[in-house]
Each structure stands twice: as structure tokens, then as C-alpha cells.
Amino acid sequence: MLIQVVEVSPRDGLQNEPEILSTDRKVELIQRCVDAGARRVEAVSFVRADRVPQMADAEAVMAAVPRRDDVSYIGLVLNRRGLDRAIAAGVDEVNCVVVATETFSQRNQGASVNEMVQAWLDIAKAARAAGLRTSVTVAAAFGCPFEGEVSPKVVGDLTRRLADGEPDEIALADTIGVGVPVQVRNLVAAVTAAAPGVPLRAHFHDTRNTAIANALAAVEAGVTVLDASVGGIGGCPFAPSATGNVATEDLTYALHRSGYATGLEPRKLVETATWVGVELGKSRLPAALGRAGWFPGDLDPQG
Known about the structure:
This is Hydroxymethylglutaryl-CoA lyase. The chain is of the alpha/beta class.
């Protein structure tokens, strides 16, 4: 069975790093990820440069990325202005993030949950008319740094409203890395009931070392698309000491050893993680595979 891994290091990874890479280096990161087998890449976000300076060169990055028929580039958009920029820049897909809790939504996006739902519905309609694939992410679905626990009912009710935008995919995000497998199963069930037939994607941060377990639980619950970031780069400004998304190479190891295919090449992923660590001035990244190595021996499977 194939599990698709969406490589998010060029966007969600880099935007939370203090070091700002040049456009050329961002494009090289994307090229390396594609060379390692990534076929969906969250490459950029079209947001205000004063809020997220790491993403200020989104148009320049999209103008230089390697174009291939089998590679799809995703741009994050939060409003119609961002969508217009994304369409002009030539992205293949757009993703909109709607936070599950009111306080986090106001702190992170400067808008209420209702306002973001309406923004998503507008984005989805216009993006679909432009021929773009659309996805919507429910952020802080597993827990909020300001309001605490988030119930499956809240996530299910929000998903039901988001489904009116007819997304091609709905993603559940453990934005601050608090989730555990039982939550994964409960949330997947709630979202499946709220939006039957819509493919699900999962986005896990490894803040408390539960991301791999959560990813495997999601796959067992029927999720076939997972987000990951090479080296585990990134983090969350609202989660102190948070690591980034689950490391692509570590997730690949867990999936391959569990009998799933990904189409990714672990050795190239490790090489990319080492490279980006140097570029970011980091002596050590959260990912483990580059230090521990594959098992058994030097086996480096492809597929």
C-alpha cells in the first residue's frame, strides 16, 4: 500500500526557523526533496511579509522551482489576496488553515474562526474556478496552547462547515504536538463522519515524541497522506521548545518497516537533512535516522 508523504519543509519548516534562506537555497531544498522522491511539496505561503519574513520571496521561489508533470506544488493561502498571488505564481494546489479554537485563531491569524471559515469558502470556490486543487487544514485539532483540550465534536462540527467548500482533501493538524494515538483514531472517525468521502491527510509535530506513533495510527485508521519535514525542521511559535513536523526520513523508516511504500529514498532524505542543517546553522536536527542509520545494515530501500 502506498502512503503519500507531503514534504512541508520548504514552507512549514523554514517559516519557523530564525535563519532566512536565500531564494536559491530554498529552490535547492525543493529540488533535493523532489530528487529524493517527493511528489507533493508545500513550497511557499502567500502571507504578509512583515508577519512571516521567511516567506517574503514566494513568487521568486515559484518562478524557479523545477517543473515536472509528476510533481505538485502547494501554496498556503489565508485570504483572497493570497489566493490571487498563488494563482499568478503558478501553484498547483492551495491549502487554507482554519484553527479549531477561537483564541488560537485570533492570536495566529488575527481573525475569528467564523471569519476564517468564510475566507476558506471564498478561497475554495475561486481556486476551483481557476483549476487548482484545494485542501483545508484544521489546525490545533488535538489541543490548543490557550484553551487546552479540543473535543472531537468541535473538530467534527468545524469540519462539517469546511466541507461545504468541497475540498479535495481535509488535513488534521497536531499543531503543537500534544496528540496521542487514541485521539488520532477518535478524530479521524469524527471527521470521516462529518465529511464522508473526502480524503484525509494528517500533520503531526513531534514536540512530545508521539508523531511517529500518531502517524502509524492515522494510517491504520485509513489516512493515506501524511505531512513531514526533512530533518524535522520547523517548530511552532505558540509551543515552547516545540520541534518541527515529524522528520520525513524517520517517518519513511517507520512506514517502510511497517510494510508501506512511500516512493521516497531514505539516503537522499538524510543527505538533504544534513545539507539544510548546515544552511540553517544547526549542528543537530531533531531527526534520528541520520544518526542511527537504517536497519538492517545499510539497506536503503526505494519505494
